[in-house]
Amino acid sequence: MEKETRITNSIAGLRQEIVEHKVYSAIQDMDDLKIFMQYHVYAVWDFMSLLKSLQRNLTCTTIPWFPVGSADTRYLINEIVLGEESDVDRLGIRKSHFEMYLDAMQQCGADTSEIEGFIQQLPASSELKASFAKAGTPQEAADFVEFTFQKIDENKSHVLAAIFTYGREDLIPDMFMSIVNDLDRRLPGSISAFKYYLERHIEVDGDHHSHLALQMTQNLCKQDDRLWDEAHDAVVESLKKRKHLWDGAYRAIQQRRLVGLN
Fold first, then answer.
1. How many Å apart are CA 247 and CA 249, to the nearest integer?
2. Neighbours of 229 (CB within 10 A)
3. Which of 204, 212, 249, 259 is the most exposed place for a label (fewest CB within 10 A)?
4. Among positive and negative, which fits the CA dihedral 51, 57, 59, 60?
């Protein structure tokens, strides 16, 4: 608990900066929200990739099967994967959270061509930079994803688990939910899928999965100070990348407003 508390206390200020980021108050209408989603969707996809890298490391995903690591840790990651990769959308259909997010973008008319172009291009090139360039991915989103994949390539499970646990998608302030609820009232049927995604996200990811992820990180770091130090440094950097991502979304929203005034 002492080592876990050290990370929590150390990142508290950075997390607060993200929760209070000016991008949230900049979202005033549907067009602003669309821009935000076009940045945020990369973090949703990135989160799924981080999750699957952990499952690959902590369980056996090849044939022939052999028991890998601790059964307790296998249970924790498999339980999280089940919920993230095959949850239920607002219509009762099984979908991953990434697919639910794409549905939400399509419902409100947000441009999905960039993210879809990226994930279509990536299997062919196997290179992030080339795929980003081909899709026209914003630089801040590319930086965010490249950091995660750098850590995936380093293949330190305790580091990946810590980033997954402490840099999770639970940094959603109440103010943002109020903005979304207001837009949903003003434009019924336009963002109901996004509203459901956020509510489901808070319900599942912010509660049940956060406890599972924390236990997984504790299992992997054990009482090893070196492992906890490596985990801490990676978490701090991941949160800085999240702030950088929000900076990009904010600038894009402001730029759209300036263009509208000219």
1. 6
2. 14
3. 259
4. positive
